[in-house]
User: Fold these one by one.
Assistant:
Number 1:
Amino acid sequence: MDPVDTTDTDSPLPVPVRSRLRHLDHNVLVDTRALERVRERFDTEQARLLGRFLANAQSPATLRAYRADWTAFGAWCLTEGRTSLPADPVDVAVYLAACAQNGEGTGRPLAPSTLERRAAAIAAVHGAHGLDSPTRAEVVRMTLRGIRRTRKARPRRKAPVLLSTLEALLAVRPQDGHPGGVARRRDAVLLLTGFAGALRRSELAALTFDDLTLVKDPVDGAPTLVVSLHTTKTDQEGRKNQQVALPRGRHRATCPICALTDWTRLIELLRDHGAHALRNHLEHTPPTPPTGAHSCSGLERLTPADGTGRPLLPSVDRHGRVAERSMSPRAIGDLVKRYAQRAGLDPDDFGGHSLRAGFATQAALGGAADREIMRQGRWTNPGTVHDYIRTANPLEDNAVTRLGL
């Protein structure tokens, strides 16, 4: 893992604590002592191979969260003169209670969900080092239960992006031409694919052109885009081979495959002729009309799907330069917020999850059955979908409409 920067001069921690933090082992989910024993019994290469697989046992997002949580707990233990590994269950309970009451010196209490994740991080580190988890002790479990009962506030959900909201977000994309035309086309793919595919922001960030398959209807030739999701939040090992299908939209402006067609042509131009040709094309091509014939009718194949793992949604800077790396999940969430603000909406109400929530809500408003919504969104719990349906239409199948009031 990358080292955690603990040299912030504005940190509320005492200088000796910050100094000792630099020497913490941040490979918290890898038992370095066990790897040393592997080196003694086998060789360095086998230990390196084992370490790589152990480090990849969790998703990068989980590792980042656990590393930050473990560093915070280690800092508290150093400040209080406690032992972090192995930790005493009472110390863990006191730490969680302190965070629930005063945060970490900020005065802002941490949410119960954050504290539960911190407890999970502490348990994971102990398990990785062959130690019993202190979080299984009754004192820790009762402390977390008391925190949840005391802090009963329901988590604030992000507002769903409905179809009307989606159209408003699409309308405030950068202007066509150069350099705005690059981000304009990429962001149309992001918004429409995330909405129609009910994708999480992490799933969007992980997509490559190789994950896309174009299927033509044998009767009318209408294209359908099949998106393969190798790993997801609920299938982190990719065993289910989950897929979502995106049909051609009714209108060109909201057609996911038309957006992909326009974006693919730019990527092909950049790949084959370079940035200068891309700029020249954007500067001399008239803006794409929001109405009219679908551009996806002429899409025969996705040439960027060449086995190189080219990201579908790469980073684009303000000069229209396309990076080789994909956007991060956080950048996707920030983009949705930014467009919401441009559209005159409260950005705090929206985020990356708004696209996925919007799919379920809009589908419910359109009369889709639970089974249909669950299939596209890969939900396994009907209760989750019912929450969205109640958001969409609280009077649907509700006996209150039969009271005769």
Number 2:
Amino acid sequence: MAWRGYLVKWTKVDLINSAVFPKGNRFPLYPQQRCGFRKAQRKPEPNKRGQEEPAHPPADVSEAAVQKKAAPPQPEPPIPPVPPRRPGRLFRPLVFTVGFTGCSFGAAAILQYESVKSRVQSYMDEAKEEELNRLRQTHDTTYWHNWWNQLTDFQRQVILLMSMVDDWWSGMSQGQRTVTGIIALNAIVLCCWRVPSLQRSMIKYFTSNPASKTRCLPMVLSSFSHYSITHMALNMYVLWTFSTSIVSMLGREQFLAVYLSAGVFSTFVSYVCKTATGRLGPSLGASGAIMAVLAAVCTKMPEAKLGIILLPMITFTAGNALKGLVALDTIGLLLGWRLFDHAAHLGGALFGVWYIAYGHELIWRKREPLVKFWHELRKEPPGGRPPSGRGGNS
């Protein structure tokens, strides 16, 4: 029975094959093709020239030529995008520059008024103290002699050191004392650059960049920011050298207004040049403000003799020095040198020359109405003006 069942099974399979395929068919039977699966075609491999081989080679040369003409051209590599130039980004820095300059000179005028007022009051107090000291001079000498004998050696050394510092401070000019505060601020900011946890905040607020979201406040703070010790030392040396001349010429309050305003204005000029050329990037340093100080002194005293610290035998006039620096920065700006921010240098020099030539007359000489307004405001009592007439309801 086993062979009979095998024969029947073989006969049914043979009938199915003859019904589906003719006898002349030479292809074998693959059951998976009956289920709808097809053999995956092999992906064409690129030839040596980097082009893909066609899946089916053309029949003749003419067909190959037609396919070659119909093939799409190879796409060119993409060109790196150019940084967008957005002049609208300069509107807020422009408004900030004008507003900050006006506020700086207004605050300087009020500060000068308060300084003169306190100075007069201190002179009057010193005169009264001198008269009292003449009456009790003998008693005071004995008292201070006994007090000094009661001190320890360490306390005496501290007092002597403080006395030496006070003598050194009193021996400096008013300009040098004013610049000492600026140097101290720059030194503090330089130390903050060395703190790793402050790096993000320092880059955001102490570097000026027209592509940054924060553009106005860094215009001021970047004028007190130096990352390199050498950069700071050179800038502060130039500022210290011209401090006595600029403060004696303008006064302490006016000098501070010029210094801060020049720093903001030079940064704005840098913003404009960077936006126009598309060379966006951060900048920092007090070079713009210091160029304004140097330009102001050289414009006011063009015949003054200047020299180089390492080459004392070479001397030149202040006017020629200013012309040489402006020419060097102009060449650097036109040739695209990136060692310094030449646009900021030119902006600071332009501000210094303009202020000595025109700005002093246009701004500082017209501060009288503001000072009068402040004087009247200071004369009012804390509760406001006293009411005129009799009080009460009628």
Number 3:
Amino acid sequence: MDPELPGNTSAPTTINYDQYRFAGLPATYFNTAANDADGVTECILYGGMKEAICAQPDFPKAVPRALVPAHQIAPSVGAGLGMFATRAIRAHELIFAERPLLLMPAAFWPTQGRGFDRESMIAHSNEMLKCAIKRMTPANRAAYCALSNSHLRDGSPELFGILRTNGFSVGERLREVITQLPEGPMGMFTVIGKELSRINHSCSPNSHVDFDLCSLSLRVSAVRNIAEGEEITTMYCDLLDPCTTRRRTLSPYGFTCACEACQHRIDSDVRRRRIHASHHLWKDATFERWLRKPPQVDDQYKMQLLRLLRLIEEENLQLLQGYRNTRQKLAFVCAALGDKPNAIKYAKDVIGTRSPIRGVVPISAEKTLLNKAARSLIEPHLSKKVGARTHEMSRA
């Protein structure tokens, strides 16, 4: 453990990729009573990353908690253990959040020379991983080693196999704070959760796993309503790939997905191709072009967005970023057309996916926060098309 004192919160100007640093975050102390109540994540970071993380305002924020517990870990048919809902869960409600066991690069590149083979990279990564796990508390070390390992026959050492099986990619989230992190392999980081790494895959998942660096927490939220007793699932592959491609991607995990989409793969593949072909509809440029066009009584853009929304919901793909983007564009379109009630309705759903509000604060406070944020989101677009229509009529 690191006997560190707070105080140095100045973010570095550069990240040293030839230097790795082991650290427990938030800061850990020899006097364990002084440690953060939400727990400690064992980290392997590039030089300078720890300082950048600790320089965030209010770091570390408290890990958000659901007001009413909503899950349990239990056996899942054909999939070992899984996460299940212990009560009805609303769409966008926080199910659970935890401080991860581990945060580290997805793979390690030797500091001397770059021409090395895959076996050398795996061996080097496993040695670094051993050091990090040795630094964990006995309870966290046991929790890590108890996770599933689907890489028993491909040459992966046991600890590295567990990492490959259970890791969530968080490189993009880290780059939001540490902008110097590059794209590509050097910027790929992974986190391991004690409970969230038990979440199994579905090609039509009902939850979204996200990572928040300021609270150093791994979170799972519902993307649609989840019934009591239903298994909570997420994605391990590109959901818009055809079924045969998804199965190839999933094969290293040692299971064959039997979700509804895979059981009815012909019809499902057709719908998913249509969704992929319609991705231009939720782009900012498409909305801006529509906004500049003369207003029409028969508004095709809004109807196209609504059809796309129904198609995504029919496939139970509410996890897609495109689903959130489509609802956001519908909020903007309704606002521009002067339909404020529907604009706020769509905007509230968008806000709900961005931050853990539902299930974290009382319902009365939740409504106030969502309404305020929704009004702020649509405000720049209110009645823009109505104004254009009035201008066209006056010219006529």
Number 4:
Amino acid sequence: MESMELMTAKEVAEKVFRNKIGYQVIIRLAHAGDIAHIQVGRKIFFTSKAVEAYLQGQLTQTVNKNEKIISAPSVPEIKKII
């Protein structure tokens, strides 16, 4: 079995997000089921793969939202509406 590094919410906030968000946000995301985690008692741990999967999902959602903006009606179609 391959060993995996486990990080606490504070370590994820520091290493991955460079303290741009607080560790409490990471914990809330875990409790909401947005980031896969391992809970041992009251301690919550994350793998780098789980954090990477979360970030990839967020990136995909952002790209999909931008596609909607790109596929907005053209100027002649907007003029017809007005």
